[in-house]
Amino acid sequence: MRARNTFVGAAFALLAGGMAHSALAQDIKIGEINSYSLLPAFTEPYRKGWQLAVEEVNAAGGINGKKLVVISKDDGGKPADAQTAANELVSSEGVAMLAGTFLSNIGLAVSDFANQKKVFFLAAEPLTDAITWSKGNKYTFRLRPSNYMQAAMLVEAASKLPAKRWATIAPNYEYGQSAVAVFKKLMSEKRPDIQWVDEQWPPQGKIDAGPVVQAVAAANPEAILNVTFGADLVKLVREGNTRGLFKGREVVSFLTGEPEYLDPLKDETPEGWIVTGYPWYSIKTPEHDAFLKAYQAKYNDYPRLGSIVGYQTIKSAAAILAKAGSSDPEKLIAAAEGLSVPSPFGEITFRKIDHQSTLGAFVGKTALKDGKGVMVDSSYKKGADYLPGDAEVEKLRPKD
Amino acid sequence: MAFYVVQFLTGLASAASLFLVASGLSIIFGVTRIVNFAHGAFYMIGAYIAFTLTERLSGAFGFWGSIVLAALAVAMIGIIVEMVLLRRIYHAPELFQLLATFGLTLMVEDLVVLVWGPDDLVGRRAPGFKGAIDFFGQNIPSYDLFLIVLGPVVLGILWLLFQRTRWGVLVRAATQDRDMVAALGVNQKWLFTSVFAVGVFLAALGGALQIPRDAVHHAMDLRIIVEVFVVVVIGGLGSIIGAFVAAVLVSELNAFGILIFPKISIILVFLVMAVVLIVRPWGLFGKPEAPARKTPGLTVNPWRPLTSNERLAALAALVIAATLPLFAGNYALTVGSEIAIFVIFAVSLHFLMSVGGLASFGHAAYFGLGAYGIAFLAKMAGLPMVVCLLLGPLLGCMGAAVFGFFAVQLSGVYFAMLTLAFAQIVWSIAFQWVSVTGGDNGILGVWPEKWAASPSHFYWLALGVAALVTIALRAMVFSPFGYALRATRDSLLRSEAIGIDAKRIQWTAFVIAGTTAGIGGALFAYLKGSVFPDNLGISLSVDALVMVLLGGVETVSGAVIGAIVYKALNIWLVSQTDLSKLVLGGFIMLIVVVFPKGIVGMLETLAQRRKKAPPPASPLLAKPIESAE
């Protein structure tokens, strides 16, 4: 019985919490969810990014005169907890829309929740193609360039390499599997002459790098596709450097140029890898300069890619809310479809056909400069140029 | 040929790192019987401190000195933890110390991010071991060679320590029979503290030595902890040589396994452990555990059914809970449903642990199987919800029947680890079989039908099922079957002597617990509308253990309270703060020290004392405690 009382008490506390927030009913609220405790290396800069965006939006008069408030929740890296958080945001905080998420399975879980509860959801980071295509739904939009788009950008550069024997190293979960699958498919279309000589699938976060490097070297490939990131990437690079795996071989690598993953490598950064990433130090456009200046002024730190994602998520959300002039999900969808918004990377558009934004990525080569890893020869690839044709997209996406 | 030699040496280097950490865990468990969940945390702190020191101190002496200093510093932390925390709870029921070390692990994961920041840290390479040595055209990193030598050297030192010193003799004696050692007048306190310090030192050394090849980050502990447990169990608990052989076996199988099956790493250690435990129930070098002298549990309060007053009180509590939809909002109701589901899950494990004396480390497998059962039936067969709810848990039942058959042949920690192995095997099937299970992207769109869709209806459904399940399991405790099961728990030999078919009774209990967990999983699938491999994962199994231990393993229905407290607190903290692990870990450690018998267990003891005291206290106070349903 006591237990029941505890529980009822907890329920009251939750209710009271909800009411305290709803006192500010005039504000427009966005519910934001991310894996703050599981992935702080990405989510800290991400949070700084969106906080900057909130500040800018409100300094410019808010959303049609109303103040923008972001209520942020941690999902601990678990889809089930992300849904609990989404439920709290929608049911008791009364947010106008959901935004955020990093991991693909969490993005999908929240997107399914949004579809069921008829809530607008702007996925920030999840890269899986499924979220806009095979498991896409009308309530879900996605900001970052998908797995397919990044693979297509890399294939453009990789297909020009003379290498014919390719090996792949990717973390053994959906992201790694689909990155490799798309890369192989697009690559083989452009270059029917190449052979795939080996593939390694270390468990995410648990790579035993020595044997993996050795196994890849034994297959004697001319080029390697890498999809690992974070601590796995560090181990792979260190073992690969010591064992000479990368010597005389071309390496194409997803995400490695992002400061989150490149900076920890310091003087061990391998040179000449073709990577996607974010060379904040060499982007010279007025939009990015403005962002960089504001970010550095506020935080006295340089932005990571997470900062861009966080910033642009809230900037886009604010633009959608402003255009819709309402928090009705149907109006938000109508406003978001085909909406063009400015971003630090130039103007982006949320496509009507699959709700994917045309935010692009930078492709360049890794290099060492003053004992640090940098991206050189980088160029911005517009997202719109790396998506399949409309007819194909329609086949991939279920009808609403 | 050169390639195979190099691959073999690479495997040996991996084995050496694994062995250092595993040997520490093995020593600690052998003597103190603590399942030290925090071993990975000590490993991680070792790496972090070594990183800081090696960045500050330069030169060869600076580097190697830093490694040793870091390990010593962490050993000091270990001593403090042992003296302040663990010493207080050695007399607590078995496995309770696991709760304390789990709380510590949670705290450390947040603390290292607070102290060292969120970024991955890459430390220096070891002076003198930066390059590689050419071996017939293959490169072997010289640091690998260093590790390959270090492994056997540490093994040798430990062997000498155990065979040639008085301390070693005491440790070996305590590993074999610690009660006898205590009876002979050995100061157990200091023996335990010193053993814990040595074990932690080895863990931290293992962590510090990773600096030249790994990145230091806040999830290092989880990456290693399960693996070293497995190595220790494969080798045989308390056996250092066993740990060494097991580390080599696992690492070599991985090094060569990936040449044929590149995806094998994800499951390899668990497959090896399952096979080893089925063939050799005490690990490669372990010895059968001597039958326990103490009767586990029930030393203080004999179990009894509820009195009629208590029944009324429990019913009243249920009615109050059922009125929640009258005044609570949708979010509170959904949280209420989630808590009710976790009550089902926790009582199912509690039944196995408290009544059967069988602590499962892989109970989430049956919860998850129930959830997947629903997903298959609803999504693929398109069956109506009621049918799904009735049939879905059968998948959990079948899983429990198959795995339970093998698991109940074992006992104690070996039983626990075999259940963990099975759970991980099921998890990896769900994770890898993308065409059927959707892999880690899960199965989406498993939402309840209209009649149950509203939060209040679903809450009543979950609450009703939770109440029924709890009542049914309680009734079973006091049935002839329950008495037989308790007999097998209290004394296997005596129960068999009076004609109880112990294995069969335990197997039945395992299936009952698994099916019940499956019911919880089935409801969970509908609550969340989706199923992911997470639903079968280790962290969920650990959650269940924590709920049972928190409630009190020696009680009849403590898990109900444990589940409510833990789940409500967890959801609330995650919603309120990014440092939820720090607060939750601190809370768990506090509970462990204040309530060494679990919340319900402690309240029962207090109530018991009051009853015995001359002026009888108000019986009202005692009631709610006993009437946990």
Automatic annotation (TrEMBL), chain A:
Record keywords, A-Z: Amino-acid transport, Signal, Transport
Family indicated by similarity: Belongs to the leucine-binding protein family.
BP GO terms, sorted: amino acid transport
InterPro entries given in the database record: BCAA_transport, Leu-bd, Leu_Ile_Val-bd, Peripla_BP_I
Start and end residues of each Leucine-binding protein domain: 40-365
Endpoints of the signal sequence: 1-25
Name under which the protein is recorded: ABC transporter substrate-binding protein
Superkingdom, natural source: Bacteria
Gene3D superfamilies per the UniProt record, alphabetical: 3.40.50.2300
Automatic annotation (TrEMBL), chain B:
An example Gene Ontology CC term for this record: plasma membrane
Source taxon at top rank: Bacteria
Transmembrane segments: 6-27, 34-51, 63-86, 98-117, 145-162, 190-212, 224-249, 256-279, 312-333, 340-361, 381-406, 413-434, 458-485, 505-527, 547-569, 581-603
Coiled-coil features, chain-numbered ranges: none
One example of a Gene Ontology biological process annotation: amino acid transport
Record's keyword terms, sorted: Amino-acid transport, Cell membrane, Membrane, Transmembrane, Transmembrane helix, Transport
Protein topology in the membrane: Multi-pass membrane protein
UniProt family annotation: Belongs to the binding-protein-dependent transport system permease family. LivHM subfamily.
Pfam families cross-referenced by the UniProt entry: BPD_transp_2
Keyword Transmembrane helix set for record: yes
Subcellular location(s) per record: Cell membrane
InterPro entries for this protein: ABC_transp_permease (IPR001851), BCAA_transport_permease (IPR052157), LivM-like (IPR043428)
Alphabetized GO MF terms: branched-chain amino acid transmembrane transporter activity
Name by which UniProt lists this protein: ABC transporter permease
